[in-house]
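Subject: for your reference before the review

Hello V.,

The reviewers asked for a structural picture of the protein, and I figured it would be easier to keep everything in one thread rather than splitting it across files. Below is the amino acid sequence we used in the manuscript, unchanged from the supplementary table.
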Amino acid sequence: MSLLKHAGMECKKIQYTKPEKTGVFYYSSMSYGKSSPIHIQSPKMKCCLSGTDLLKKGSITLELEPITNDFSFYDKLLQLDDRNIKETFNKNKEWFGKDIPLDLIDDMYKRTTKPVKKDCKPRFSFKLPITKGKVQCPIYDQKRACLDIQKITEDCELIVVLHVRGLKFLKHHYYCDMYVSQIKVCVPREQRYMIPDKYIIDDEEDENSDILDEVVMMEIKLDKERETKISEAEVELLQKTAEMEGLTKEVVQLKEVLSGLKNDLR
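And here is what came back from the structure prediction:
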């Protein structure tokens, strides 16, 4: 298996297969060169959520951000997104049998990266492979010993390997399908102490934890569903608008032909 450091990966070398239907979606596999799978190694980054908190989430994604102000990894993922959009536009006639405007393709594509606010660092969300509630990708420490995901603590430093599989086309949008295939937990030497994994202090008073009200959680869920429906409606509106523009052009052309035929009869 070939491993690509993010700085050395050339997006122009990525190859795409023609999308094939798989269930309810179409899938275009991606490779580096003619056949090599795409495995990208990230720089060392800070973990924003502990492994325990990740397991509590319904959809498990690894949340990371750069340790320094180095944006090179973020820029590489931007290049990957741009390459995916450009290739879809260049091949849309071959892949889908019709010409799709570039701006519509851009709107339909769900980018891997999100815009970064001024004076802020980028934040990355990468999917973890899960089977029956267990994380499948191996997690190692600096001695290459396997770790449980619960050993990952907030603000610890990680290096991840991303497997970029392909483009997944759904009804109203598409995205680059990738997941974390390996994790390395980096522990600074000065922090390698025998630290208990559990709380051992004897408290006499009970501690209360703040819990979000179920009503508030339901409102948050409904807001997300509304945002998704709005996004899907906007994409469908753009598609219908493009179709109407094409029909309008055909009507104008037919009128011109009809007018020319009438003039010939005179």
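For the response letter, the relevant points are probably these. The radius of gyration is 25 Å. Residues 72 and 214 are 41 Å apart (CA to CA).

Happy to draft the paragraph if you're swamped.

O.
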